[in-house]
Amino acid sequence: MAGMTITEKIMAYNSGRDKVKPGELVWTDVFSVMTMDYLGKSTFKSLHELGKTEVFDRERVICVSDHLVPPPTPAFATMLNEWRQVVKEHNIKYFYDLGRQGIAHQIMVENGHVLPGKISVGTDSHANTYGAVGAVGNAVSVTDAAVAMAIGKCWFRVPESVKFHITGKWQPYVMAKDLSLHIMGMMHWNGHLIYKALEYAGPAIEALDIAGRMTLCNMTVDLGAKNGIIAPDQKTIDYLRPVQKGNWEMIASDPDAHYDAVYEVDVTNIGPTVALPDKLDNVVPVEKVVGRKFNKAFVGTCTNGRLEDIAVLSQILKGKQVHPDVNFILVPASQQVYLDALRAGYITDLVEAGVAVDTPSCASCAGIHTGVAGDGDIVLSAGNRNMKGRMGSKNAQIYLTSPAVVAASALSGVISDPRLL
Amino acid sequence: MSDKIIRGKCWVASGYVMAYDIVVQKFWTDPIDKALNSKFIMSGVSPEFDKENAFKDAGYTFIVAGHNFAGGGKSIEHVVTGLMGAGIKAVFADSFSRLQFRNATNYGLPFITVKDLVSICQTGDELEFNMETNTVKNLRTGETRETAPLAPFVLEVAEAGGLVEFVKQKIADGTAHMLR
Fold first, then answer.
1. Cβ separation of B77 and A226 shorter than 8 Å?
2. Residue B167 sits at the chain A interface (C-beta within 8 Å)
3. CA quadruple A260, A105, A175, A185: dihedral positive or negative?
4. What is the largest CA-CA distance in chain A?
5. pLDDT tier for residue B2 given thresholds of 50, 70 and 90
6. Half-sphere exposure for A168 (CA within 13 Å, toward CB)
7. Do A239 and A210 meet the contact criterion of CB atoms below 8 Å apart?
8. Would you state the pLDDT for residue B74?
9. Across the interface, do A224 and B98 touch by the CB < 8 Å criterion?
10. Nearest CA-CA distance, residue B141 and chain A, Å
11. What is the longest distance spanned by two Cα atoms in chain B?
């Protein structure tokens, strides 16, 4: 009997089975459920429609204010007030509201609400991020989240697994984001990995810190995958130990597990990478677009708003000046990230260089909050999506790339290769 | 005609249909309500649907699409409730975005995998979907395609009137913990 992949094992163990097969529909236990300001009120409403007034476990339903904070309009302020009221009524233990906020996916990992070998769901598409610590993280809708909040369970179709075995040595100024975009170009955004469990493994993955692993797993949803996952190792243990909200055990794929496909990528050959406007998979090496003008720079989001990303900005921009034709906005992914970046001196370096630092939130990434793009804007972004209108105006262009490319380019006002600094 | 056979007119996608275009950004925060969500459904897909009730008034029963229908990574349920409110009874595609496949299952709208139905259908064609034989027939041309059968769970949820009703019943009779 063939072995199981890490995702199959997690689906089996959390549904009281010894084994599962891809394609099978199973109900599994859910370790934690995340909902946020944007959809949270509807989620709780749906909970009541199920005939329940209480959540299955007040310590495992996590509420976060991230899309609407701080409120830019009276309508958002009112939505937030209603949201706070609903969270309070349900006696939720972990409520990360304005002041203690962050982007939900950052909050979930940073505070140990997701754990290896367990399944967590959230009402936002980038819940795939949780795979960075060996959890199955899955985006679900309001109804699914309400069911999970009510009974601590969710239905899943067990996905086929695909492995990306990543070898080689990371080159200077090459980040997990570049690998992510490279794979996007290889596999295409619109399709080949739909429904798949995408597992990253190999020496170049082991070399990545948790922040880089989060970037990789985060963008698996944009490849169409059901989840992205990396088996836990010593780095996972060290990261989770001070924050974990429960016990867990090491878990990994069996050596004889079946994969639908295995792809080998040597990271040594990957340089800084850029996705051209409108399509995520229209990906080129930075050399191809060097010299193109842009007027807005953005670093933040659940993809690239972490301390390690901000450190790279500081490394490139410290003691220098952002080009006068560029508006550069940095939005740390959480208050904790913000504080760590302040203490490390990065925020000082960046403000001195002419970067505007905004309060942690999803910011302009979903096109509804601070720093949105207007007609004619050309944005160089370290976010995750670049379809027309994603960051605001449909008449803006969005290039996606790594924080290193954004920082290097911000100095000159044209897209630049950080390796040539 | 049995309730396992549905007939009606189809709308055929000419390219990739994103969730972002089925429900455009300004409606993402609307409450879930089939009638409300259907008003501007598909308004980003084609200018002809960018008027109140335009898609609904066109009177389609089915959508026929290619790969990754309703993709782009949005979990919003308005996509499914809006299509249902507009009278859509089933969507056929080569593949679906998993988020919207879940939503469709949870609301009892069949999202059915059919290979390359796009190539034998034109917008306005009358189709017949038979859930017992797992086939879809173009009544204009007589051509038939096999559809992937719906899993029993999907049918159970649809028969219960959606996931909320399905789980509500299990909670009420004390069997929700037995779901596995």
1. no
2. yes
3. positive
4. 64
5. low
6. 15
7. yes
8. 79
9. yes
10. 30
11. 51
Question: Could you say which of A38, A142, A226 has the minimum Cβ distance to residue B77?
Answer: A142
A54: left (phi over 0), alpha (psi -120 to 50) or beta: beta
Of A151-165, A179-193, A333-347, the poorest mean pLDDT is in A179-193
Quote the tokens at residue A4. 């199981």
> B103 vs A141: CB contact, 8 Å cut-off?
yes
DSSP assignment string, B95-163: -B-HHHHHHHHHHT--EEE-TTGGGG--TT-EEEEETTTTEEEETTT--EEE-PPPPHHHHHHHHHTSH
**Closest in B20, B163, B168 to A51, CB measured:** B168
How much is the pLDDT for B28?
87
* Sequence-ordered list of residues with C-beta below 8 angstroms from that of B102, at least 6 positions apart, any chain: A140, A141, A144
Which residues on B lie below 8 Å from A46 (Cβ)? 164
pLDDT at B75: 80
Considering only residues 160 to 199 of chain A, which have any Cβ-Cβ distance to chain B shorter than 8 Å? Answer: 190-191, 194-195
With contact defined as beta carbons under 8 Å apart, do A383 and A401 qualify?
A: no
Q: Copy the structure tokens of residue A230.
A: 């990396």
The amino acid that residue A19 corresponds to is K
Tell me, yes or no, if B164 comes closer than 8 A to chain A by beta carbon: yes
Residue of A nearest to B100 (CA): A141
Helix (H, G, I), strand (E, B) or coil at A414: strand
Class of domain B5-148: alpha beta
High-pLDDT (> 90) share of chain B, %: 80
Q: How confident is the model at residue A189 (pLDDT cuts 50, 70, 90)?
A: low
Q: What is the pLDDT of residues A278-292, one digit of tens each?
A: 999 999 999 999 999
- A200 in Cβ contact with A216 (< 8 Å): yes
Pairing outcome for strands B135-138 and A197-201: unpaired
- How many residues does this entry show for chain B? 180
Q: Do the beta carbons of residue A41 and residue A82 sit within 8 Å?
A: yes
A302 Cβ contact partners less than 8 Å away, ≥ 6 residues apart: A103, A104, A105, A106, A126, A129, A214, A218, A333, A362, A384
Q: What is the pLDDT of residue B149?
A: 84
Identify which of B144, B115, B3, B76 has the alpha carbon closest to the alpha carbon of residue A139: B76
| d(CA B173, nearest CA chain A) in Å | 12
**Token pair recorded at residue B13:** 């996608």
Spans of all domains in chain B: 5-148, 150-180
User: Is A190's CB within 8 Å of B74's CB?
Assistant: no
Structural tokens at position A290: 């060097």
Whether residues B171 and A52 touch (CB distance < 8 A) is answered with: yes
Measured between alpha carbons, how far is A397 from A118 in angstroms, rounded to an integer? 39
ipTM (interface predicted TM): 0.87
Q: Are strands B62-65 and B90-93 parallel, antiparallel or unpaired?
A: parallel
Taking the CA of residue A190 and the nearest CA in chain B, the distance in Å comes to: 7
Q: Looking at residues B171-175, what average pLDDT do you find?
A: 95
**In the structure encoding, which two tokens stand for residue A176, read together?**
């997990």
- CA nearest B73 in A: which residue? A125
Query: Residue A15 and residue B99: Cβ atoms within 8 Å?
Result: no
Is A125's CB within 8 Å of B99's CB? Answer: yes
Domains of chain A: 6-244+257-265 (3.30.499.10), 274-420 (3.30.499.10)
